[in-house]
Amino acid sequence: MGRPTADLEPVGLRWGWLATMLAVLLGAALAGITVGPAGIGPGQVINELLGAGLAGRPSTLSSIQQAIIWEIRLPRVALGGLVGGLLSLAGASYQGVFRNPLADPYLLGVAAGGGLGATVVIAMVPGAGSSLLPLAAFVGASVAVALTYAVGRSMGGRSAVSLILAGVAVAAFFTAIQTYILQRNADTIRQVYSWILGLLATTGWREVLVLIPYAVVCGTGLVLHRRLLDVMSVGDEEVDSLGISALRVRTTVVVLATLATAAAVAVSGLIGFVGIVIPHTIRLLVGVSYRSLIPISAVAGAAFLILADLAARTVASPAELPIGVITAFVGAPFFMLVLRTSKRYVA
Amino acid sequence: MSVVIDRLSVSYRPGAPVLRELSLDVNEGEWLGLLGPNGAGKSTLLKAIAGLVEHTGSIRLRGADAASLRHRDRARCVAFVPQEPVIPPGMTVTEYVLLGRTPHLPYLGTEGRSDLTMAASALALLDLEPFANRSMSALSGGERRRVVLARAIAQQADILLLDEPTGALDIGQGQNALELIGYLREERPMTIITAMHDLTLAGQFADRLLLMAGGRVVADGPAAQVLTAEYIREFYQANVEVVSVNSGVAVLPIRNGAR
User: What is the pLDDT of residues A73-86, one digit of tens each?
Assistant: First the structure.
């Protein structure tokens, strides 16, 4: 004891895994841009993107093929990547800040709030849907999470469990209102139904441009909080004894994660399970530290949703499945597996 | 003086104070043992010193008014180990010990070379180097306790607060835990305040004992003065015999009615 000591290995981002996931993301994006009925090969796609897009050489593709790549497939892949990254980031952040491996963007009532907001607009403001939908979803999600937070605090002060329970109650309440509105407006059920299952429909680059500011703000903010999310794992009292306000960290992270979720939900509807499947898979690969989990989950979530969208477009081609069906098909069995294996974390 | 407490009162519910106008001075480098029956306010006193509960009255830490310290500065001064620390599943020993560096880092910052060096020396001090990359979940109870102490050491605080460091331990583990704290104090001068259940261990390890009841101090001094059969009967409702041993005082429970 007391002898001179060797330095420890720095604890930080697992760069190897980040590079691997970035490679997977690139592969997924290339597949997403290539696969489809237009018959453009991967070589042509790379040539078009790097040669014509970056280097400014004349394109070898027809103008229709160019339009398919630049105006249809690329924005759709970008949208899938952004939505997947934001949902996965939000899920990992909620899990950290609530010390609950089952927490995800949907557990706090964010989804129900967003759904209700959108339903109100679709049912009550005929014809105004497309422009008001994102705003309404965002307002609904924010109201839901604020309500969850207020109810949770009044139930049990600082306990994370009371917040989760409050989220379940708020979600049930919002869903009930939503169902009531739907029953009263039977003609709009079909439109809401497609939104509930999630849809990555793009009109050029508009949705992508809407999402980018949210992705930058939430992504930067949450990545900066990655070490504090590790600190949060020892419980509020010990966090406070380390000189950090657990309440302040939780509030900031919840606001950022909710903003990320609401932005994603607003442009793409309710795409479930990304926030739980991806962070858990990444946790198995890189360990529990949020220093790696936060950035790598974001990249992996982006790749996952691009591939899920590819499946949604091709499985029942020429028809298109709602992407939420694909993520639920993969995610629901995975969630059951998590339930079984995470008993020791929850107990 | 390391800790100076003046008329400290804490109430979790209005009208039901847990600490009542308690005043106390703790010397630099002293090991103070807090005794008293359940509900006497031992844990609450530790939490008040660590800044974890609302209180009235004043607490001075190494001369500074605790109320005027920022959270970070207070955490650099006082390290708190709860009775049952939360062990994050899957976290490695190094990651856990580095959490102790939090008060020394900028709010959104990450550890630098000096923090790694400090964590490494805390691990070495507690003979934990072979465990550095192990998962906390894979450690035995005794190893975990050492890792928790290593985190507190990495915090580099002058005042170490331990809530029931021998709680739920068997007789050998309990003795080892306190030997370890005594060893740490020799390696790094620290003021140590422990809430303690086991009177015999308290009577042999702490320099000074404070007997609390109903949120007040009822006896304060060396073991021989505080651990008397009369005090223990009055405040614990226990029938005991107090025996002098080489290393201090031992308290033996005696069955009522026995001769």
Answer: 999 999 999 999 99
Phi, psi of B24, rounded to the nearest 5 degrees: -165, 140
Nearest to A10 among B109, B116, B183 (CB): B116
ipTM of predicted complex: 0.92
CB contact under 8 A, A243 and B120: no
Kindly determine whether residue B91 and residue A3, on different chains, have CB atoms separated by under 8 Å: no
> What are the phi and psi torsion angles at A313 (to 5°)?
-80, -30
> What are the pLDDT digits (tens) for A9-30?
777 788 999 999 999 999 999 9
Name the minimum distance, in Å, from the CA of B242 to any CA of chain A: 36
Query: A224: which chain B residues are within 8 Å (Cβ-Cβ)?
Result: 108
Q: In the A/B pair of chains, how many CB contacts fall below 8 A? A: 111
pLDDT above 70: residue A222: yes
